[in-house]
Specification:
With about 375 residues, this protein is of the alpha+beta class. Helices cover about 30% and strands about 15% of the residues. α1 (about 20-35) runs antiparallel to α11 and α2 crosses α6 (about 200-205). It is globular, with a radius of gyration of 20 Å.
Length: about 375
């Protein structure tokens, strides 16, 4: 397994940005230990404080099929659920133009929700995972899998109706239960209002204006050799190959689906940190950003039992927002999202700190260690 360290060019030293260099060394050592222990295939990170980029490094292998090929600072990775952040911003762009209200019943935009079981579900519920719709597979231990993904074969006539034929997990506004399906419905709302697919809307109104030139839904074939691949299902496909999987091709890619680089993710995070604009380009307004990154579920009425938890979940609107003193050093108010695989991008407004990280699991096997311990190491270096 490749353990080569590739150091990307940065305009500032860690100390010039208010960060202690010692912790860059510790972070590199920790990633190498995880490679040795076969926890991750590699790790790359992009760190900025006070608008000063001071670390842009990568260690490990780009592709499990060619373990000596190095992971690079500008390697591309599927960012999975970080895509939800982009969908949330897209919904607020439509709200700022008067097309939608966050408290609208979903039935106002999607007729299939106009039933006794679903008419109380709102756009707000979809954004906060409190709709009561089926959560993602694995969120709850059951003797038989009850995952909405298993119903893809019912999509031939109406995928929305097919998904709503499944019994809800619970009543709306009673639990936090992580549901990427809810973001598929948000993607369909974007399509209904804008007249174009949610993917195209996000690319045209967020990705391109921010200059995120290495961010795609349909990855061009000439970029395939830059993609970090840790398991078979991450091997990039052409648009034609993906369409052969009928069910998935009908779903809006609003809860997952984007490919990106750490540098591009940093542009999105900078935009959010700057109250909705970057380099003179306004994406959303300051009040929308404040609403998105406000912690919305701080009451006991919204328990979280997913993946064995028993707590109030840290949740904004389509974003994770730290509301308690976290155990991983991140400041209360830090916001962003994780993506399976694993990747994450967070903004710590109080510290003026932005961190984006790729940690591809070894052979794609889930392990909680890289998620939390890496955050602990990174945040510890703030001076």
């Amino acid at each position: 397994m490749n353990k080569q360290l590739t150091i990307g060019k940065v305009p500032y030293t860690p100390e010039e940005a208010g960060y202690e260099s010692l912790y860059i060394d510790r972070l590199n050592d920790f990633i190498i230990r995880m490679i040795d222990d076969k926890i991750v295939q590699g790790g790359s990170y992009h760190l900025m404080r006070g608008g000063k980029l001071f670390a842009n490094n990568a260690i490990g292998s780009l592709d499990y099929r060619e373990p000596e090929k190095p992971l690079l600072p500008d390697s591309i990775r599927p960012i999975a659920s970080i895509t939800k952040n982009f969908t949330a911003v897209a919904i607020f762009q439509l709200a700022e133009k008067g097309y939608i209200n966050i408290n609208d019943p979903v039935a106002q935009h999607l007729n299939e929700f106009d039933t006794p079981l679903h008419k109380k579900i709102t756009v707000y519920n979809l954004l906060t995972h409190t709709s009561g719709l089926l959560p993602d597979g694995g969120a709850f231990e059951t003797p038989y899998e009850n995952d909405w993904v298993n119903h893809l074969d019912k999509f031939e006539s109406n995928w929305i109706k097919a998904m709503l034929t499944q019994p809800p997990h619970c009543k709306p506004n009673t639990q936090w239960a992580y549901s990427s399906l809810g973001f598929c419905f948000l993607g369909e709302i974007i399509k209904k209002i804008s007249g174009i697919n949610a993917e195209d809307f996000i690319l045209e109104n967020i990705v391109k204006p921010l200059g995120m030139n290495d961010t795609f839904y349909d990855l061009p074939k000439e970029y395939f050799n830059r993609v970090c691949v840790s398991t078979e299902w991450e091997i990039p496909q052409t648009k034609e190959e993906e369409k052969e999987e009928k069910g998935w091709s009908l779903l809006p890619n609003a809860g997952w689906g984007l490919y990106s680089t750490l540098g591009d993710l940093n542009k999105f995070s900078q935009m959010m940190f700057n109250n909705g604009s970057l380099n003179g380009t306004r994406i959303i307004g300051r009040k929308s950003v404040e609403n998105i990154i406000h912690h919305h579920l701080d009451r006991v009425e919204f328990p979280n039992y997913c993946w064995g938890a028993d707590e109030i979940h840290d949740c904004g609107l389509g974003f994770e927002v730290m509301n308690r003193k976290p155990f991983n050093q991140m400041t209360v108010g830090t916001f962003g999202h994780e993506g399976s695989g694993v990747c994450w991008s967070y903004v710590d407004p109080k510290e003026g700190f932005i961190a984006s990280v790729f940690l591809p699991y070894y052979k794609g096997e889930f392990n909680i260690i890289p998620i939390h311990r890496t955050k602990y190491v990174i945040w510890s270096g703030l001076i």
